[in-house]
Amino acid sequence: VVDCRVCGDPNSILRFAFIEFTDEESARTALNLSGTMLGYYPLRVLPSKTAIAPVNPTFLPRSEDEREMCSRTIYCTNIDKKLTQADVKNFFESICGEVQRLRLLGDYHHSTRIAFVEFALAESAIAALSCSGVILGALPIRVSPSKTPVRSRAPRASMH
Asked: Which terminus of the chain is more exposed, N or C, with fewer CB under 10 A?
């Protein structure tokens, strides 16, 4: 397995995952697992109609420190545009623990925003994963582990 992304509300039985295999044979073998019981429910294994979008390699961790940062960082999507950085920080701190760094991103072309939230402790990031599906503002947020660390922004060249 090269990559695995679990999606959906953790409190629902209607969860799904995208699993990327190293080769076609492994993927074909996985299709034979349909019907296998996982917990209390039978798996449904289907070929994906979409590829897992790769992460730009320049954003991936470059050191052991950055890998450790990733273990404390979550990626949050479907954030209501009306929410501020303070709103998102306060939400996660009230439920999960101290937020060390938060990068809230968005533009005029998308109806929602995304955030990378780096916690002081890995346990807080794990707790944050159970916030998927929680209504924040007017929308249910989606939370997943981050594959990239939150880096401080490069200083911008002066306009003078």
From this structure: C
- Yes or no: say if 120 and 72 are a contact pair by the CB < 8 Å rule: yes
Length of the chain: 160
Distance CA 120, CA 97 (A): 8
Distance CA(14)–CA(158), nearest Å, equals 50
The amino acid sitting at 100 is Q
Determine how many CB atoms are found less than 10 A away from the CB of residue 17: 12
The per-residue pLDDT for range 31-73, each reduced to its tens digit, is: 999 999 988 888 888 887 665 566 677 777 778 888 888 889 9
C-alpha torsion angle, residues 142, 135, 108, 8 (rounded to 10): 20
Assigned token pair, 69: 């940062």
